[in-house]
Amino acid sequence: MPLKKQTLVAQGAEAKIILDETKKQIIKDRTSKSYRLKELDDKIRKLRTRSEVKLLEKASKIINVPIPINPNNQQLKKEVITMPFIDGKKLSNNLDEFSEKQQLEICRQIGKDVAKLHDADIIHGDLTTSNMILKERCASDEADDFNKVNKQKKDTWVNQLSLVKNKSIASNSEPIIFFIDFGLGFSNGKIEDKAVDIHLLKQALEAKHFSHWEKLFEEFLNGYKNSLNYEKTLAQLIKVEKRGRYKH
């Protein structure tokens, strides 16, 4: 039976996530809200989409994220983002299946990547294992895949970025984790927002991986130690957790 060209894989409050199986691409389409005036609704969706594209472009220079395809020449619908499909394991569903050693390595890598985001003043806004995909490692295959995509792209910025990623993927042995869905993200250097980001991840680990979430979070912090504002952020995290609106 032939594959469908497009399949709805998720329907959230903000957007529909569609898999184009022929092109191996993900299409994020922000859905209209009938309770808003059409002009206002169109403006809000376009602004949020533009903001997310900018965050993805900025984040892609320092960590693994799906890079928007032709962001300056997207479909006429400005509320749509097209990205490559990341064929991997969503950590919310699969983290517990790995050995404890592997889980700790993964969480340490998450900490390193979040530190890089925060040092670049990028707040994810929905930092949970549901928004992280572990890519299976095969260095030569990964490099070949990126090179194939690279040849197909005419956009200079994407070409340069792909070459950088080829080097990083082929030269280190750390887990390859892709961060997805920056729809609630924003750029901000405030320690408070960084602390809240970490608090969200801590809650996610406790909820989804409750049997040993303390060890996982401790290893996340070990990876996050390289952050320029580690001490300040951890001190603020303690304050955040004491507030009634953030308590369970």
Written description of the protein model:
- The protein is an alpha+beta fold and 248 residues long.
- It has 2 domains: 6-84, Phosphorylase Kinase, domain 1 (2-Layer Sandwich), CATH 3.30.200; 89-137 and 173-246, Transferase(Phosphotransferase) domain 1 (Transferase(Phosphotransferase), domain 1, Orthogonal Bundle).
- It is built from 8 helices and 9 strands.
- The strands form 3 sheets. Strands 1-2-3-4 form a 4-stranded antiparallel β-sheet, with helices on one face. A 3-stranded antiparallel β-sheet has the order 5-7-8. A two-stranded antiparallel ribbon has the order 6-9.
- The model is unreliable at 139-171 (pLDDT under 50).
Q: What is the global morphology?
A: globular
| Poorly predicted runs of 5 or more residues | 139-171
Helix content percent band = 40-55%
The helix-and-strand class reads: alpha+beta
Strand order of the largest sheet: 1-2-3-4
Largest sheet: 4 strands, antiparallel
Spell out the key features of this protein:
248 residues, alpha+beta, Phosphorylase Kinase, domain 1, Transferase(Phosphotransferase), domain 1, four-stranded antiparallel β-sheet, three-stranded antiparallel β-sheet, 8 helices
